[in-house]
Write a structure and sequence with these properties.
Radius of gyration: 21 Å
CATH architecture of the domain at 2-41 and 144-206 and 290-345: 3-Layer(bba) Sandwich
Bound molecules: flavin-adenine dinucleotide
CATH topology of the domain at 2-41 and 144-206 and 290-345: FAD/NAD(P)-binding domain
Number of helices: 7
Helix content: 25-40%
Oligomer: single chain
Distance between the termini: 41 Å
Strand content: 25-35%
Structural class: alpha+beta
Largest sheet: 9 strands, mixed
Order of helices and strands: EHEHEEEHEHEEHEEEEEEEEHEEEH
CATH class of the domain at 2-41 and 144-206 and 290-345: Alpha Beta
Length: about 350
């Protein structure tokens, strides 16, 4: 079998890259072994403002401008709804935070998202004595559903193999890559935290962070916006909410833990005062990089091997943009953004 590309890993990165190949009539084969869960468990939230400090997310506005049409296109392709828009309400802890919000909401990159008025809390189920700051034009992508739908299409096209990619089986001949029965021009590795097993790219400085989330049922809460306090409470519909997420830089297992649950519930109870039931708990590893920038580019020796990783805490927004940049780099030699290019780690 001969293809233009092999893609290893089908999370948000692999999906965004596969889609751009499909749009450009390139042939590809995906390998996916379900060893990582990040894209499937993610809250899927997009929001271009850092809600701790009220600063713009790195390239956030541009990323959203690339990302939303991408998911819209997939909605049309699969006749499904993935993008659920809502406002985000940031709970203020003090008057000082209110003031910081006012100042930030006047800045050019932020003013199309941050409402400059304080929203008073009228919901008896929420503790928010200093009110909320309202962010407009935010939402969540149902990452699990879009990945599921996309995989079904690839199954029909026989473009996905559910098996672990074995790095030892790679051979290089005449500027092509041989992998078992497949001959490809290039291999793009999109393995998320799985990168640490990849002998070609495992030297890249990841600083991955495990995250845990709960799904709760809270019939009396009755909110249709995302509440952001020490954790977020994200409306899923039918009185269900996702609560998250933890950050753990030591534990690299995919297991949901009692400590994770306890931490989330303690934080939740500090600003929610309605009864709720925990329905589920999930965990995943965010592929975060030491310098907090994506990992995009080609291997310094094997030019047929590329990497698309390091989406960190914001894969929903970043994936479509960096996938496009990698594609244009590989096919048209358009230079990569030096902040994302893995060459930054090769320079002395
Ligand atoms: C708890 C939590 C909450 C989050 N919330 C948000 C959020 O609200 N908004 C947001 O934008 N981001 C969020 N993120 C971050 C987001 O999930 C990631 O940025 C994104 O999913 C990374 O996508 P990826 O495709 O690079 O990696 P992954 O999703 O990890 O995908 C990699 C894929 O490669 C496969 N794979 C790996 N190795 C191999 C191999 N050798 N052979 C075959 N297949 C292989 C894995 O099985 C996996 O499917 C969250 C993450 C977590 C953990």
């Amino acid at each position: 079998m001969e293809v233009d590309y092999i893609i290893v890993g089908f999370g948000l990165a692999g999906m965004a890259f596969a889609d751009i190949l499909a749009d450009n009539n390139k042939t590809f084969l995906v390998y996916e072994d379900a060893s990582q869960t990040s894209s499937n468990v993610a809250g899927g939230v997009y929001n271009p403002v850092v809600l701790k400090r009220f600063t713009p997310v790195w390239q956030g506005k541009q990323q959203i401008e690339d990302a939303l049409p991408f998911y819209k296109k997939l909605e049309n392709k699969f006749s499904a709804i993935y993008d659920h828009t809502f406002d985000t309400y940031r709970v203020f802890k003090s008057i000082e935070e209110q003031n910081n919000w006012f100042v930030a909401s006047e800045k050019p990159l932020l003013n199309s998202f941050m409402d400059d008025k304080i929203v008073k809390n009228s919901n008896t189920g929420i503790i928010a004595d200093y009110g909320f700051g309202r962010l407009k034009n935010t939402g969540r992508i149902d990452t699990k559903l879009v990945l599921q739908d996309y995989k079904k299409l690839l199954e029909q096209q026989k473009s996905i193999r559910y098996e672990t990619f074995d790095y030892d089986e790679l051979n290089f001949k005449e500027e092509k890559v041989h992998y078992k029965d497949v001959l490809a021009k290039k291999v793009v590795f999109c393995e998320g935290y799985g990168l640490h097993k990849n002998p070609f790219f495992q030297h890249l400085p990841m600083n991955e962070a495990k995250g845990e989330l709960l799904t709760i049922y809270a019939p009396e809460l009755d909110v249709d916006f995302l509440i952001k306090a020490s954790v977020f409470v994200l409306p899923l519909g039918n009185h269900q909410y996702k609560v998250g997420a933890t950050f753990n830089w030591k534990d690299k297992s995919l297991k949901a833990t009692e400590e994770g649950k306890k931490e989330l519930l303690e934080k939740l109870d500090s600003f929610i005062k309605v009864p709720y039931k925990v329905l589920a708990q999930s965990a995943g590893i965010r592929p975060t990089v030491k310098d907090r920038r994506p990992l995009v580019g080609i291997h310094k020796e094997y030019k047929e091997l590329a990497v698309l990783n390091g989406l960190g805490t914001r894969g929903v927004m970043i994936a479509p943009k960096v996938a496009k940049e990698l594609y244009e780099y590989l096919e048209m030699a358009t230079p990569l953004d030096p902040e994302c290019d893995i060459q930054r780690f090769y320079k002395k």
